[in-house]
């Protein structure tokens, strides 16, 4: 069974990348130090690095990566568009406006929770706006309108960000740009808990909707004839996928590429059945982002490369190889 | 399973003229009914109203013993297998996966396919003669092959009724005949079969009853012998025709006339 083999391989890959993320970092610790930190007998500074910095960072990478991949696969099915990705509805734009506003006004300095909260609220604003437009006809949600509204709202948010940045100091601009490019550097246990609370139940729910999603990927009319309450499934799945995305952006900024390409890569390997596609996308997205973060931390240590650069640098060639192979087959 | 409408009126929002205007008809178990009419006469609208997609403005629709919109989508899917006009597949899928979707109305979110489901899928694959390419990607199939896959999916639903919207349009003779024979056999086995089609001659050969629509109204209905009437068809399609019994099959056959032939000039 190809699916079983791939899931096992992905679980092993995810476990290895998590272990490696905890083991390696800009501060050179030995394996013995790490183990003693986890069992609680290490000096406090070692414990802090391992338990309060590296471990939550590894978990956050896995949660955000897995969540973005599942959300991407869901958006692609619901919008019946291979180019759909988690940020297509302007969610990242809304979150960025929230975050940049906090940085520009200096409120971000008031507490580590202010920026993620503002980003999350910005993302929710985008969702409400876009869904509101798409359901305005009163005859159910039109996904074509949803897509169009998303693109337009995203453009509006870009303009807002440009405006805020144009009147900000250079230092603010730099931190804003770094935030928008996405990073796991601010990982902490509170972020991990937020990401887990949104991502894990939502992923389980979407996997439960795998069969209706299979039908919706064919067409809404056909899905109805095969027993799906299309409006309910669309609203539920879109809402849940949007919330996963909002939580991910709030805690880790705009990490591109995972949500677009991981689902396609899994589709090329095991086909389009969402019962396999969604769980495998979660595992692959989690492993991929954890690994990308490790590379981002280590390559130019102690300077960190934005993780979005790594996801694209590693992901693009990998995806092109898969694409070539599947076209040749 | 009986499908019927009584003085059904359907209007799309904002349209001045109703899409269906007082349509009354019934399809009974074990019979094949063909719905015919020019483009825009309301054939597809009638199917969508029967299937609960479009609400009735007035009049009634009955599926088994209650209106389609009073059934859940899941219950409807267990009773009626539908082959809609077109489907745009966004992602690749194998033939077996596509036919397997016909079992979805019987499965819960955590409930996998059982022996019974696999058997239903297998039967549908054999019935539609597509077993040979069951593991092929549906996006690589020809029009005729894809159409048989979609019919197999409807059969895998093990429905009491089949509803098809122009299932043989754009198919060659062989595939068209194979599909119509399959539908005839399904009706003979006790199913209720409703087909929208443009093919008057084949409808007259295969259907027990024909329903002829124009601008949302029923112009004629009944056995092919009564509906295939030259003055009625000329009126509905706005073109001169001759209707003669086919020398081979004996069923009525329509010949559209050239304008010179219609006036009798040489």
Summarize the structure.
Chain A is mainly α and 329 residues long. Chain A contains 14 helices and no strands. Helix content of chain A is 78%, strand content 0%.
Residues in β-strands, percent of chain B: 15-25%
Q: Helical element count of chain A?
A: 14
Rg over C-alpha atoms of chain B, rounded to the nearest angstrom: 19 Å
Poorly predicted ranges of chain A (pLDDT <50, ≥5 residues)?
none
What's the story with the biggest beta sheet of chain A? none
For the termini of chain A, the CA-CA separation is 19 Å
In total, how many beta strands of chain B?
11
How many strands, which pairing sense, and closed or not: the largest β-sheet of chain B?
6 strands, mixed
Tell me, rounded to a whole number, the average pLDDT of chain A. Answer: 88
Strand order, main sheet of chain B: write it out: 5-6-7-3-8-9
Write down the overall geometry of chain A: globular
Tell me the greatest interface. Answer: A-B, 28 and 31 residues
**What structural class do helix, strand and pairing data of chain B support?**
alpha/beta
Helix content of chain A: over 70%
Computed over alpha carbons, the radius of gyration of chain A is: 20 Å
Tally of alpha and pi helices of chain B:
10
Oligomer: heterodimer
Question: How much helical structure, as a percent, in the residues of chain B?
Answer: 25-40%
One letter per element, helices H and strands E, the order of chain B comes to: EEEHEHEHHHEHEHEEHHEEH
N-to-C SSE series of chain A? HHHHHHHHHHHHHH
Strand pairing plus helix content of chain A: what structural class? mainly alpha
């Amino acid at each position: 069974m190809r699916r079983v083999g791939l899931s096992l391989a992905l679980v092993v890959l995810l476990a290895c990348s998590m272990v490696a993320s905890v083991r390696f970092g800009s501060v050179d610790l030995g394996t013995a130090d790490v183990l003693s930190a986890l069992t609680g007998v290490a000096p406090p500074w070692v414990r802090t690095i391992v338990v309060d910095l590296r471990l939550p960072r590894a978990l956050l990478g896995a949660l955000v990566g897995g969540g973005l991949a599942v959300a991407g696969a869901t958006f692609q099915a619901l919008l019946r568009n291979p180019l759909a990705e988690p940020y297509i509805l302007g969610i990242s734009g809304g979150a960025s406006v929230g975050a940049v506003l906090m940085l520009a006004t200096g409120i971000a300095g008031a507490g580590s929770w202010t920026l993620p909260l503002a980003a999350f609220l910005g993302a929710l604003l985008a969702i409400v706006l876009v869904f509101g437009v798409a359901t305005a006809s009163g005859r159910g949600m039109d996904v074509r309108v949803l897509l169009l509204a998303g693109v337009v709202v995203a453009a509006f948010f870009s303009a807002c960000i440009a405006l805020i940045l144009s009147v900000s100091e250079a230092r603010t601009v730099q931190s804003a740009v770094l935030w928008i490019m996405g990073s796991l550097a601010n990982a902490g246990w509170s972020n991990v808990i937020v990401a887990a609370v949104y991502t894990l139940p939502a992923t389980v729910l979407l996997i439960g909707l795998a069969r209706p999603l299979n039908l919706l990927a064919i067409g809404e009319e056909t899905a109805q004839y095969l027993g799906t309450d299309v409006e309910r499934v669309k609203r539920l799945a879109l809402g849940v996928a949007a919330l996963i995305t909002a939580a991910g952006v709030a805690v880790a900024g705009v990490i591109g590429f995972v949500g677009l390409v991981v689902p396609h890569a899994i589709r090329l390997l095991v086909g389009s059945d969402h019962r396999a596609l969604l769980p495998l996308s979660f595992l692959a997205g989690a492993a991929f982002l954890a690994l990308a973060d490790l590379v981002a931390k280590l390559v130019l240590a102690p300077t960190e490369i934005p993780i979005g650069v790594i996801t694209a640098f590693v992901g693009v060639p990998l995806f092109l190889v898969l694409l070539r192979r599947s076209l040749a087959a | 399973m009986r499908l019927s409408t009584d003085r059904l009126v359907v209007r799309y929002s904002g349209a001045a003229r109703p899409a269906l205007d007082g349509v009354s008809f019934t399809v009974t178990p074990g019979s094949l009914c063909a719905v015919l009419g020019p483009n825009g006469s309301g054939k597809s609208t009638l199917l969508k109203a029967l299937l609960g997609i479009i609400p009735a403005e007035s009049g009634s629709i009955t599926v088994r013993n209650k209106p389609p919109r009073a059934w859940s989508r899941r219950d409807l899917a267990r009773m009626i297998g539908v082959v809609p006009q077109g489907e745009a597949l966004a992602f690749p899928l194998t033939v077996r996966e596509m036919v397997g979707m016909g079992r979805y109305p019987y499965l819960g979110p955590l409930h996998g396919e059982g022996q019974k489901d696999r058997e239903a899928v297998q039967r549908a694959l054999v019935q539609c003669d597509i077993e040979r390419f069951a593991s092929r990607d549906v996006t690589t199939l020809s029009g005729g092959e894809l159409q048989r896959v979609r019919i197999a999916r409807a059969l895998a639903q093990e429905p009491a009724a089949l509803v098809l919207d122009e299932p043989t349009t754009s198919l060659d003779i062989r595939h068209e005949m194979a599909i119509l024979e399959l539908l005839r056999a399904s009706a003979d086995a006790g199913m209720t079969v409703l087909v929208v089609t443009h093919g008057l001659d084949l409808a007259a050969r295969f259907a027990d009853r024909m329903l002829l629509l124009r601008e949302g109204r029923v112009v004629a209905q009944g056995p092919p012998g009564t509906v295939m009437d030259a003055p009625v068809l000329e009126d509905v399609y706005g073109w001169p025709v001759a209707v003669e019994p086919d020398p081979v099959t004996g069923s009525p056959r329509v010949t559209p006339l050239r304008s010179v032939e219609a006036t009798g000039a040489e």
